[in-house]
Amino acid sequence: MPLFSDPALSTAPRRRRLEAPATSSEPLKDKALEVHRRLCGVYGCPIPYFHSLDPLSELISSLLSHRTRNADSGRAFKALRARWPDWNAVEEAEVAEIEETIRGVTWPELKAPRIKAVLSAVRARAGKLSLDFLETLSVDEARGWLEAIPGIGPKTSAAVLSFSTLRMPALPVDSHHHRVAQRTGLIGPKVDVGPSHAVLRAQLPDDWSAQALYDNHEVLMLHGQQVCFHRSPACGRCVLLDICPTGQARQAKATEGR
Ligand code: SF4
C-alpha cells in the first residue's frame, strides 16, 4: 500500500462517517461463537492483559505500533518515556527530537509529527492531556470521540479502550485477526480491516465483558500468528478446519494434486 494512502497516517482532517449499526445473521453469530470457543480452548482464556497503561499512554503506544514489530514499538515507547518526564514535555518537544527518539519504528518521520498533533488535539478537545474521562462515556461515544481526531481509526480507538486501564468492552481487529476472520468466512473477502470492526463486533453478544472481547481479539490474533499464517496456513493442524471454507478448499486442492 502506498505510504500516504494509509488512513492511519494521513494528516488530512477527517469527518466521522455516520455508519448504520452492523447486523449479522444467526448462522454467522453461531459460527463466531464456535470459533471463539475452539480457539479459547487452544490458547487458554481468559488471556492475561499485556498492558496496564493509562489511556493516553496506550494511545501513543498504539500510534507507534502501526505496521511495526511489537519489540520495536515497545523500545520506542520506552525511549520516549525515558527522554521526557511526561506527555506535556513530548507535546512541547521538537518533531526532530521525537523522530530521532522513535527511529526504530516504521515511518518515524510520519509518526513523530502525528504524535505531537494527536497530543495537541487531545489537549484542545479535553482541556488537558488525559483521556481518563473516557471511562464516563459509552464505548460508542468514547470511540467516536477518539476517531474524530485525524489519524485515529477504529483499530486504535478500540485498542485504547480495551488494552488500557480503562478496560472497556471494545473489539480491536488487527491484520492477523482480520485474516482469520476472512478465511473462516466470518467476513467477506472485500471487507477491509476498518469496516470489519463493526461487522465482527455485531457477531458477538452485546453483553460480553471487556475481558471476553479482549479474549476474542487475542485468540484470533494468536491463531493468525501461530497457525493461520499469511503465506502458508497450517490447515492440517487447525482446530477450525471443518468449519473453514478456505482451509477445506486448500486441503481439497492438495488432495487433487497428489
Ligand atoms: S483451516 Fe487453514 S485457512 Fe482456515 S483458519 Fe485454519 S489455518 Fe486458517
CATH topology of the largest domain: Endonuclease III, domain 1
Say which molecules are bound, naming each kind only once: iron/sulfur cluster
Provide the β-strand percentage band: under 5%
The quaternary structure here is: single chain
What do we call the CATH homologous superfamily of the largest domain? Hypothetical protein, domain 2
What would you say the CATH architecture of the largest domain is?
Answer: Orthogonal Bundle
Radius of gyration: 19 Å
Looking at this protein, list some descriptive labels.
mainly alpha; Endonuclease Iii, domain 2; Endonuclease III, domain 1; binds iron/sulfur cluster
Protein model, in words:
Its cofactor is [4Fe-4S] cluster. Belongs to the Nth/MutY family. GO terms for molecular function: lyase activity. This is Ultraviolet N-glycosylase/AP lyase. This protein has 258 residues and is mainly alpha-helical. The protein folds into two domains: 26-47 and 172-190 and 210-256, Helix-hairpin-Helix base-excision DNA repair enzymes (C-terminal) (Endonuclease Iii, domain 2, Orthogonal Bundle), CATH 1.10.1670.10; 55-163, Endonuclease III, domain 1. The protein contains twelve helices and no strands. α2 (55-65) crosses α3 (70-83), α5 packs across α6 and α7 packs across α8 (154-163). The relative contact order is 0.14. Mean pLDDT is 92; it is low at 1-20. Iron/sulfur cluster binds next to α9 and α12.
